[in-house]
Amino acid sequence: MRTRPLKVALLGCGVVGSEVARIMTTHADDLTARIGAPVELAGVAVRRPSKVRAGIDPALVTTDATALVKRGDIDVVVEVIGGIEPARTLITTAFEHGASVVSANKALLAQDGAALHAAAVEHGRDLYYEAAVAGAIPLIRPLRESLAGDKINRVMGIVNGTTNFILDKMDSTGAGYQEALDEATALGYAEADPTADVEAFDAAAKAAILAGIAFHTRVRLDDVYREGMTEVTAADFASAKGMGCTIKLLAICERAADGGSVTARVHPAMIPLTHPLASVRGAYNAVFVESEAAGQLMFYGPGAGGAPTASAVLGDLVAVCRNRLGGATGPGDSAYAQLPVSPMGEVVTRYHISLDVADKPGVLAQVATVFAEHGVSIDTVRQSGKDGEASLVVVTHRASDASLAGTVEALRGLDTVRGVSSIMRVEGE
Amino acid sequence: MRTRPLKVALLGCGVVGSEVARIMTTHADDLTARIGAPVELAGVAVRRPSKVRAGIDPALVTTDATALVKRGDIDVVVEVIGGIEPARTLITTAFEHGASVVSANKALLAQDGAALHAAAVEHGRDLYYEAAVAGAIPLIRPLRESLAGDKINRVMGIVNGTTNFILDKMDSTGAGYQEALDEATALGYAEADPTADVEAFDAAAKAAILAGIAFHTRVRLDDVYREGMTEVTAADFASAKGMGCTIKLLAICERAADGGSVTARVHPAMIPLTHPLASVRGAYNAVFVESEAAGQLMFYGPGAGGAPTASAVLGDLVAVCRNRLGGATGPGDSAYAQLPVSPMGEVVTRYHISLDVADKPGVLAQVATVFAEHGVSIDTVRQSGKDGEASLVVVTHRASDASLAGTVEALRGLDTVRGVSSIMRVEGE
Ligand SMILES: NC(=O)c1ccc[n+]([C@@H]2O[C@H](COP(=O)([O-])OP(=O)(O)OC[C@H]3O[C@@H](n4cnc5c(N)ncnc54)[C@H](OP(=O)(O)O)[C@@H]3O)[C@@H](O)[C@H]2O)c1
Ligand SMILES: NC(=O)c1ccc[n+]([C@@H]2O[C@H](COP(=O)([O-])OP(=O)(O)OC[C@H]3O[C@@H](n4cnc5c(N)ncnc54)[C@H](OP(=O)(O)O)[C@@H]3O)[C@@H](O)[C@H]2O)c1
């Protein structure tokens, strides 16, 4: 066993970073045994140097992250600051100065993963980021390594705990969106500004990362279709229940049936209560993977939180340290397949559409004609009405998103259709 | 990219091996891209050379596995023969001749893992065996690598598909054990001789492997307490339902509360219907992992079958080939913690005990006294009786297996106790 310790620079010491530092200290002996050499916290970069940080030697704390990364003796940089800058520059600087990098930064990885991977390769270093997707759940390593001999066809998951908490509340209590969001905020599950979660920016970043790994293809954040969950209503949940479904915000990465292209999207969707993802409660995450040989796999666990996220960061830290000792690098980025990413219009799925219509004879025939004209085949229709007002709930067979959009536009043009009150995709069947 | 192919010797071409060969051929380009060099099937060892094997070049087929392994130009040996010999000797011979090894052989790994790992280390080669536990489910890599920075406290799983199929049938149809087994046999889920599955030898081998990896400790097959599921009755399922539970054959590897020792055991147990493992249907496998930082994780998927098992074998093959190209070895065996493995008597859990008793006053008091004398605290008692015969169902609080065994022995000695009709552990609460 080597005794010169591997030196770790910790950039950020907030929710995740403080747990990383704590575990590095309390479990130092285990880490040493598993890596084959001791690891030493060589410096901790923060914004507020005077903040008291339990268990952190104040002499290690600095506000000059750049100088820490440039010291030249750092083996591994752990980036848990978050955001684009200064994280991006710090990571590339780390590579330039010979360090490998472990990051939990989904926003940055989704936006600039290609450039960061290229920098890692250029300098012969590792870039690991298991914590960036689904927190503690081992997902990136299983997709990249365990399934390296298989062909992944679909990744479908609940990858944002905040929105799952809100949707689960709406489902179990009948609450509306705002009420459920308020409770999530009060309990600390939602941030003061919940935009990144509820508008699905966070989930979209994760979808881009997952699709890239699953399909060995470069998937940019802009390639991901994104629809938030702020419009989901109690009425949608009631409709879903009527169909034996619930509603989840899903990240879905799919290979087209002909294998020639892929899609990535994030939106609320109805899924059958019998689907394993339907029973994922509270702030938990779960990801369902379908591959050619392995079949259906599911990975489940806490998608966020200081300690769970730190578990993933430390797993990466051990791997990266072992690679350094062995003079090797791990399996890095792989985009050899270079499949085109198709736009949302080419996604094929099922739809649940609620229409407010005039309560008079012939409306259903008119509506059905519009669906038929756009090549969207109807599975079931439910009609209900009173006082001259009526509603129609249509569930379709599989059709392209473009055909559905055309259908909806045409429906809106009908005199007898007062409004399209909700459109929701139906997945997992 | 290197163009000299890596040479793979396939030992065994049955259910799993034939799928490995098929995928190596049909997905050759993907494997090449992911490994960084082509892989070539250099030879296939079987018992019956004349059997027609679709897609396998007859010129590659041999019955002399030893000569194949000794050829000297083999980079990776894939052992999917099964059983102890000749698999064991072939694997050690492979290391001696410079090859790394991928195996799916749980029986061999559980019995001789230590010696095989030592041989791998001695020759600087890899020994990977993701397929040996829970088929396609990535489990060994997540436990060994993703959770390398965490402290695993418990691994509890359904790791045998045959017995889960049988128990699921009994649960859903009310069938008895024999009837459910017959159906499993007819459908090909159980072998003609189902002993290895139903007496839990297979699950015990997997428990030994999982406990060793989870706790960085040598756990031998003899260290695993093993109880099969042939005695589980329809009446047990009825009792379980009354408690909001179902019955599963569980492999449970636990760290003692004081952290100073571990246990590994396999037996049928009641678990609450709300536990994620309760809803694992048919021949699926699932493993629940509890660790200090990550919390509760679950891994779910097909635990057997040719293609799923081949998926795991090929994931290992890619990793081992990459390691070879990089001149490195992966994270191998780790038993540094050297925790003692405690006997079953020290396991602490809850129990569900059914007694046939005389239907007269004072029996419950007598029975309760016996429990109290052995330090086993009672949670609930249900009494029912007719015609001078009565039954008592006792559910205990947590107690050691030794205390429970003492209690049961004393109960059997009571005049008023006609028999102990079932004892089942209650887990997952
Ligand atoms: N929290 C989770 O559950 C979770 C889960 C998965 C992934 N992640 C990812 O993990 C990363 C960190 O998240 P977090 O929740 O730990 O964030 P956080 O609690 O806000 O902590 C951020 C840390 O970075 C420091 N920092 C900010 N700007 C800095 C700068 N310019 N130079 C040096 N230090 C700076 C802060 O210093 P001060 O302490 O002085 O303010 C703080 O210690 C993010 O990428 C996030 O997406 C988080
Ligand atoms: N089947 C599963 O679902 C599954 C799941 C997980 C793990 N595993 C493990 O995978 C391994 C293989 O299982 P399997 O189901 O594929 O077994 P299998 O169908 O019985 O195939 C065994 C293969 O080994 C060959 N063989 C037997 N003795 C040999 C010898 N002395 N020399 C050379 N070849 C010999 C057989 O040759 P012939 O073809 O000529 O008979 C056959 O091709 C076992 O360790 C098993 O525990 C299997």
Automatic annotation (TrEMBL), chains A, B:
<dbReference type="GO" id="GO:0009086">
    <property type="term" value="P:methionine biosynthetic process"/>
</dbReference>
<dbReference type="InterPro" id="IPR002912">
    <property type="entry name" value="ACT_dom"/>
</dbReference>
<dbReference type="GO" id="GO:0004412">
    <property type="term" value="F:homoserine dehydrogenase activity"/>
</dbReference>
<keyword id="KW-0521">NADP</keyword>
<protein>
    <recommendedName>
        <fullName>Homoserine dehydrogenase</fullName>
        <ecNumber>1.1.1.3</ecNumber>
    </recommendedName>
</protein>
<keyword id="KW-0791">Threonine biosynthesis</keyword>
<keyword id="KW-0486">Methionine biosynthesis</keyword>
<dbReference type="InterPro" id="IPR005106">
    <property type="entry name" value="Asp/hSer_DH_NAD-bd"/>
</dbReference>
<dbReference type="GO" id="GO:0050661">
    <property type="term" value="F:NADP binding"/>
</dbReference>
<dbReference type="Pfam" id="PF03447">
    <property type="entry name" value="NAD_binding_3"/>
</dbReference>
<comment type="similarity">
    <text>Belongs to the homoserine dehydrogenase family.</text>
</comment>
<feature type="binding site">
    <location>
        <position position="191"/>
    </location>
    <ligand>
        <name>L-homoserine</name>
    </ligand>
</feature>
<dbReference type="Pfam" id="PF01842">
    <property type="entry name" value="ACT"/>
</dbReference>
<dbReference type="GO" id="GO:0046872">
    <property type="term" value="F:metal ion binding"/>
</dbReference>
<comment type="pathway">
    <text>Amino-acid biosynthesis; L-methionine biosynthesis via de novo pathway; L-homoserine from L-aspartate: step 3/3.</text>
</comment>
<feature type="binding site">
    <location>
        <position position="106"/>
    </location>
    <ligand>
        <name>NADPH</name>
    </ligand>
</feature>
<keyword id="KW-0479">Metal-binding</keyword>
<keyword id="KW-0520">NAD</keyword>
<dbReference type="InterPro" id="IPR001342">
    <property type="entry name" value="HDH_cat"/>
</dbReference>
<keyword id="KW-0028">Amino-acid biosynthesis</keyword>
<keyword id="KW-0915">Sodium</keyword>
<dbReference type="InterPro" id="IPR045865">
    <property type="entry name" value="ACT-like_dom_sf"/>
</dbReference>
<comment type="function">
    <text>Catalyzes the conversion of L-aspartate-beta-semialdehyde (L-Asa) to L-homoserine (L-Hse), the third step in the biosynthesis of threonine and methionine from aspartate.</text>
</comment>
<dbReference type="InterPro" id="IPR016204">
    <property type="entry name" value="HDH"/>
</dbReference>
<dbReference type="GO" id="GO:0009088">
    <property type="term" value="P:threonine biosynthetic process"/>
</dbReference>
<keyword id="KW-0560">Oxidoreductase</keyword>
<feature type="binding site">
    <location>
        <begin position="11"/>
        <end position="18"/>
    </location>
    <ligand>
        <name>NADP(+)</name>
    </ligand>
</feature>
<dbReference type="Pfam" id="PF00742">
    <property type="entry name" value="Homoserine_dh"/>
</dbReference>
<comment type="pathway">
    <text>Amino-acid biosynthesis; L-threonine biosynthesis; L-threonine from L-aspartate: step 3/5.</text>
</comment>
<dbReference type="InterPro" id="IPR036291">
    <property type="entry name" value="NAD(P)-bd_dom_sf"/>
</dbReference>
<feature type="active site" description="Proton donor">
    <location>
        <position position="206"/>
    </location>
</feature>
<feature type="domain" description="ACT">
    <location>
        <begin position="352"/>
        <end position="425"/>
    </location>
</feature>
